[in-house]
Amino acid sequence: MKPQWLDRLAWAAALALPVAFASSGPPLGGAPSPGVVASAAQNGPRTVWDGVYTGEQAKRGEDAYKLSCGYCHRDDLAGGFFDDGTGRAPALAGVRAFDSSFSERWSGRSVGEMLTEIGSIMPLDAPGSLTLPVYTDIIAYLLSKNDAPAGPSELPPDIEALGQIRIGPKPAR
Ligand code: HEC
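YS: structure for the whole thing
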């Protein structure tokens, strides 16, 4: 059964989107000047490359992933065919993850959108069956496995806040 937060929050995230675009600085794909980067880090939108989850949270996410996702996507996130050969789950980390790469697949979207989308379709055999905090931890784990650095505070289990964190190409540092 579809949990209520998914319905309510899916469109909350959709509504938050134009606002985020209107108030944000340069598009993620661009190459903003150092001055712009500094001010964006202070009060502008954050990206998944800014250290938006903790190592401890990713570890919790790993446990939840192994329980609810690993039997299809594999514990090493490499993806593969189902045991009965009826389907194939895509890789969720590595250069060919999501049939492109993590940043290509979700580029221009927010973590909130990524979460509502994944929550709506996964686990494939029981979509929306996990709680929002558990999905959030799993997202932290997926970020950790796709090269995004950990930081001082956890990814909040709050779709609106997650809608403020953008996904884009890994910045050259
Ligand atoms: C029963 C097997 C199964 C389980 C369990 C499962 N998945 Fe999947 N997953 C799939 C398949 C198959 C696809 C490809 C679906 C498609 O292309 O329509 C997929 C696709 C995905 C995608 C790619 C979506 C996209 O649009 O790029 C993500 C992300 C994902 N799964 C995450 C998860 C997470 C997180 C979990 C655990 C909460 C999970 N999956 C559990 C089978 C599974």
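YS: worth flagging: Residues 4-166 form a domain with the Cytochrome Bc1 Complex; Chain D, domain 2 fold (CATH 1.10.760.10).
IM: good catch. Also Confidence is low (pLDDT under 50) at residues 11-42.
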